[in-house]
Design goal:
This protein has 295 residues and is α+β, with helices and mostly antiparallel strands. It has a single domain, classed as Beta-lactamase, CATH 3.40.710. It has eleven helices and eleven strands. Strands 1, 2, 3, 7, 8, 9, 10 and 11 form an eight-stranded antiparallel β-sheet that branches. A three-stranded antiparallel β-sheet has the order 4-6-5. The longest helix has 14 residues. It starts with a strand and ends with a strand.
Length: 295
Amino acid sequence: MAEPLSVAVRRGEIVESVHHVHAVAVRDGEVVAEAGDPAVLASLRSSAKPIQALPLACARDDLGTEELAIAAASHFGTPMHVEAVRALLRATGGSEGELECGLQPGRPPERVYHNCSGKHAAMLAVCRARGWPVGGYFRADHPLQRELLDVVGEAAAVAPEQVQTGIDGCGVLCFAIPLERAAFAFSRFDGLDGGGRIAAAMRARPDLVGGEGGTDTELMLALPGWIAKGGAEGLMCAGSADGLGLAVKVADGNSRALRPALAAFGEAFGLELPAFAEVPLENSRGEVAGRLAIL
């Protein structure tokens, strides 16, 4: 097993801490690059959102780019993002009062501002399209959540019983699979049922998928033709239109190490991410007092 990537936090020349990062890249079902343990269990969290949006793309062929992109988003709660969620609800017969994502600290006290509201709006739409009850759609025993477990398993080519589950921060199921399987799922994403439409929407509107300055948004802007989606606890999954998938997981869950790790790991297969190689750290005076970079 290759050594994990090491991202150092420096203050001047002092190394204050080091984040260890697992990473794997997959093409045509084969690992083409790895660092650390490609079999480490990765809780997908929000990195699963593009996969969770697949049933929406299959059920509603009348939705536009914005509605599909926001369904795969962890959005920043700006007016642009909130309007996209509301547009998805209007187009599919849903209402803000039906959203079960809860409220998000630091944002206006309306559920539509939650960063997962697009995913929840998509779930409401799928329930209506399938004739399933809307009430309780977030519960693990609801037909929607059982189907999404199957969808994640199919995308990763893992039996549903091998996908570990828990409860996500917004109340729905979250899923855990080996890191290599996450990279595999993103390597074949365009070819999945509904995947082409979701991927096209994400590529067209990376600003809706996250927001200005978001690592997944900035990764898509830096690599045209790619999709990318971050997850909690230091996970990033991405896939290219020509079938390369990657997954990067910070072992201690701190997402600040992702950009230098992505830049260093990408060099193994020809990706150029110079803006990611070093992340400045500012103090309370706005001065650059340190940096994150590969050790």
